[in-house]
Design a protein that fits this description.
The chain is mainly α. It is built from 21 helices and no strands. α4 packs parallel to α6 and α18 runs antiparallel to α19.
Length: 320
């Protein structure tokens, strides 16, 4: 019977043979670690073999973790196969290794797994594809926006956001306003920031009135990124939100927009009991570049919080 060791003449790998085939799974696991440290291509055969066939889940999981640095197509395929392993620990290790890949070629191997029957596999596949910027993933991600799993929809939104897929904006706007899952609405709201014009403003204004504060917070942030002055009035309204996290992001975005009609509202925020809000208000007032903010900022120079005082100094330096 042919052994995996028959395909190598590497003395370091051959020296590991007794421990790689030991009956003790702990010994095999440590041997795999030493094998990976050699960084020899011949060692991949054994690592992928143990990932698929070792009877002990702990050893298979270790093999999955050790394969994170390799982007050879057979390795990527082996990690994708491991997403269906009966052990959750092996699945998680394989998903983590896949998420660390960087090459577009790896993305082409992962792509077919976005259509797998198991939602956990689909989630891991889209998560791995997100930062690879694989253009071929756009169609799969767009289809997945209607997936029955909220987690799959959320990961698909992430892929489209990284790809800056402008033709997906209508679908993303629909998710931002109507998806039943809070995290999907939040992710879709953030992804609308890939646009730089007014077409996404209606969806973002609606998101700023969402029942979940996390979505409103994301909408306030994204409106600042889009950078359209027509967002200003809605952001001023958001300064009265019941959650300080939303008010903070709205304050920051108003400064980013340099929306001068927000001057009085930002001056009022400069006296808020929450120091983070006072700090953001000071910074925003500096960005407005309106001399009417000088006197209120000077009055805040003795604020009890050093971070607020620092923000006030920065703002005054912009105005004087």
């Amino acid at each position: 019977m042919t052994s995996l060791f028959d395909v190598t003449d590497n003395d370091d790998i051959l020296a590991l043979q007794p421990r790689l085939t030991d009956d003790d799974p702990g010994v095999r696991r440590i041997a795999l670690i030493e094998l990976a440290d050699l960084e020899e291509p011949d060692g991949l055969l054994w690592l992928t073999d143990r990932l698929a066939a070792d009877p002990i889940a702990e050893v298979r999981a270790e093999a999955a973790r050790l394969l994170e640095a390799w982007e050879d197509e057979p390795v990527v395929e082996a990690l994708c196969q491991a997403l269906t392993d009966p052990s959750p620990a092996v699945q998680a290790a394989a998903a983590q290794s896949l998420s660390l890949l960087k090459s577009e070629a790896a993305g082409r191997v992962i792509l077919p797994w976005t259509g797998h029957a198991d939602s956990g596999v689909r989630i891991a596949a889209f998560r791995a594809l997100r930062e690879l910027r694989c253009p071929d993933a756009a169609d799969a991600a767009t289809r997945a926006l209607t997936d029955e799993s909220a987690s799959v929809r959320r990961e698909a939104v992430g892929v489209l956001g990284w790809l800056k897929q402008l033709d997906a904006l209508p679908a993303l706007a629909q998710l931002a306003s109507a998806d039943p899952d809070t995290e999907v609405r939040r992710a879709a709201t953030g992804a609308l920031g890939l646009a730089s014009d007014a077409q996404v403003l209606p969806a973002l204004r609606q998101a700023l009135r969402d029942a979940a504060w996390q979505v409103r917070e994301e909408a306030a942030t994204t409106l600042g990124k889009v950078g359209h002055p027509d967002a200003g009035p809605a952001l001023i309204d958001a300064l009265g939100d019941g959650y300080w996290q939303v008010r903070l992001r709205a304050t920051r975005s108003l400064g980013r927009l340099r929306f001068t009609p927000a001057l009085e509202a930002l001056i009022d925020t400069l006296g808020h009991r929450i120091s983070n809000l006072r700090k953001e208000a000071a910074l925003a007032l500096g960005e407005l570049n309106d001399p009417r903010a000088i006197a209120p900022l000077q009055a805040a120079q003795d604020d009890g919080d050093p971070e607020v005082r620092k923000a006030v100094r920065i703002a005054l330096s912009q105005l004087q």
